[in-house]
Specification:
By secondary structure, this protein is mainly alpha-helical. The chain contains 9 helices and no strands. Helix 1 packs antiparallel against helix 2.
Amino acid sequence: MIEKLHEVAKVLDEQSQEHHTCTDSYIICFEQISQILGQFGMVFSIVTKDVDSKLAILRELRASNDNTHKYLERMMQHEVDNNITILKGGGKSGSRTLLRLHRALEFFIRFLEKLLLLQDADSAAAAAVEAYSETLQQHHSFLIRSSVWLALKSLSTKAQLMTKIKASDSGGAEHTDGYIREVCDWLQDVYANVDACFHQHGLHSLP
């Protein structure tokens, strides 16, 4: 499973470096991220449900705005220029939707980075809680935070989680770790470039 994310993350990173982050590639990458979190177990359901709902909105906006929403950077510029980053009456904003996915991406990167630091027999719970506390927690209500904390503390060991997403080749655990390191590096680049775009337009605090 990790091979597919490895493949699409590399492509997305290359596009992001050129400041033409393809919306379709971003969606495909997040589909893989959601699948991996799903493989890790129901403990991540709060995150994956939100990710999947935001992906559905982004797909809809992309399909109905072929030119302006082809690239993430172009989408944000278009919405800022037309004052539609916040829409009343239930309208859907690509920038607001992207911001939620952007935050989830930061959590995913932090969790994988911390997971790599563990020994195989170590519980992954502390890594997940730390990653959540450093990222998504600040955007959630107390009730959601409490539910997530309880769920994450039930995570199994690093070895058990890695078995669920391991590389299908014969390289073993070390090869899987290598894939994950590269995925983290590439996704961090994507995160940084998209984050710079949010900063440029002052969109970090969209409600």
